[in-house]
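USER: Note each token:
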Amino acid sequence: MSKQVLFTMDIDWVSEPVMKITIDYIKQLNIPFLIFQTHISESLVKETSPLITFELHPNFCDGSDHGKTTKDVIETICKFPHKGQSIRAHKYFMPDDAIKHIDQFDFKYTLNNFTNLNYQKPVKITDKLTEIHTFFEDGIYLKNKQPLDVDFVISKMKSDGLYVFNIHPIHIAFNEKDYQLTRNFKDSMTKDEYRSISAEFINKNKYNGYGIASFIKDLVKELKQMGYDFIHIGEVII
């Protein structure tokens, strides 16, 4: 088996200016992207690139905008346009009763286990569902102060198999080098203010040096040169 790469994105209620910047960014990467939606983004609705697949990102945590009960959350989120093959819960938190509900649909894959640069093979969790582990996440990578060094990440990709990367528009738009940059925005803003961040605010506060967006771009370039296979979710073979 070769080394395959699946790039994913959790949009996490970001504003339209943040989303527009991120869409332009992922189109420049020119690889398949699996986008997990927390809400309907006007920018995404207009997007027709064959590289982009839309899936669902339900929030089962307390205080969720998607609903008070597991059933409410699933009913809300399933109204969003989506392919219906894979699902990832916000904060990787999917309770057991949610798995039972989801197992009634045609989903094949859940992506609710983050391994922090440790490769793990996919594992069956029900007769119909397979958990595909997430290898890399931009926010946690920054929070842990891990190096923006392409060779460091590639050195962790020793085994053949499927490597799932997860990025977030808020980190990409601001090209963070320090996790606290956008964390401070969240802590100092109301929910509505955070979800309404403007293009002007981004331009004023984004990091203009070598940050996470620069790093991901270099990482993708190097993985391409090394012959890694970038795949759509529909191309996953377990």
